[in-house]
Amino acid sequence: MTASHLVRPDIEYKDSYLEALSEFHAEGRLKYYDMLSLRADFDGFTKMLRTERGVEHQPLQDWAEPVPETVLWFVKDDQYLGTVKIRHRLNWHLEKWGGNIYFAIRPSMRGKGYGKKILTKSRPYANYLGLEKALITVSPDNVAAIEIIEGAGCTFEEETAATNQFPARRRYWMDCS
Description:
Shape: globular
Oligomer: single chain
Order of helices and strands: EHHHEEEHEHEHEE
Strand content: 25-35%
Number of helices: 6
């Protein structure tokens, strides 16, 4: 049995990742990943995730230029537990609503301390990418994520108000140095 750790996406975790994706789909999340396409070309999917690329899964507006991001999977033994995405810089939109770091723990593994671990283990990666501090944003209604973020030692900055286009967000900074 090995300790949980972060890895680049790899075909080794195909079955576990697809199981987790099914759990996310049941929650109505990550629907932009098509299960049939991933089953057919999981190797191509992991290769795409391993390249530094711009955020692609949402339609881009004129003001939201893509930024490079590094995708890491949180694993233990042969099991996929979650994903952390580290955006190398912020554009105008990410500065207000998206942040540098996005993390998700698969539904069947929540409540086991993995959220705090994934954030803690992402610090040196963010620092390696040149981030002394990283912005994390979260919905004010997501109490579990707020507890994880605060439990990982992140500093609350402010809560933004909802607009016609975007939801309210709580903004936190994580020291990466």
